Structures are given as structure tokens and as C-alpha cells.
Amino acid sequence: RACFVELGKRGVWSNERHAASRGAAAVHAVLALDDAMSRAPRWMQRALRLLSRRSSEGVVHGAPLHTFDLEREAAAAFRCLQSGRSVGKVVVRLPCVDAPRTSGSQLLTGGGGFLGQLTTRWLAGRGVRSLV
Predict the structure, then answer these.
(1) Are residues 16 and 44 both part of a single domain?
(2) 83: closest CA among 104, 58, 66?
(3) According to the model, what pLDDT value does residue 111 have?
């Protein structure tokens, strides 16, 4: 039997939806990493090391990645999402910006978390001195 483990909390399929989509031949399990880490940190550490090793060996692979160019393929990306048949990640690529403007101020919204901190460092490393 196949086993499907879903990592996450948002948009997680119910057992019924999974069975309707993939058939009853596969086992469906949901794993919320934050809960697992707090409840069984040693088990999680061993599991992540095993996953890392198997990934390095090429035994396991990440989910398929479907990329679309924002300027030319945005509509196709949304059609892919709307179809409900996409497996993996749907990513819309933004045009590459050589460097942010260093004059004036840059506005960063939702920047209180880890990604915000990384973005702030990235901007500062490229000469931005005023960040709101």
C-alpha cells in the first residue's frame, strides 16, 4: 500500500477527500510539524535526519514544482490552481530586479517574521537605508 503524508495545517485534505481523490489503496496521514516537534523532539530529530539522508541519497524527492512567469503565464498559473489537479507547488516567478532604489524609503509589509528579517537584511545589504 502507498502512504501519503501531508505536512501542514492549512488546506489539509480530510481523509474522505483524500480517499475520493487517490482511492482507498493509500494510507493518508497528516503531520503538523510544530506539534510533533513540541511533543516528541527526539523522534522528530531522528525523522528529519533520516529524511535528509534519504533525500541526499536520491531515495525521496520533493513535490513537483510548477513554475510560471508572472508577465506571460499568470493566467495559466491560476488555471492550474483552479483545476484542483495540480500536485506539488505552483510558483509564479517575478521579474528579476537588479537592485532596489536606495533613495527614499522602502515599505515592507508583514515583515515581522523570519522572512521579513531576511528581506530587511537583503535590502540593507543592497544599500537601502530607510525602511518603513
Answers:
(1) yes
(2) 66
(3) 73
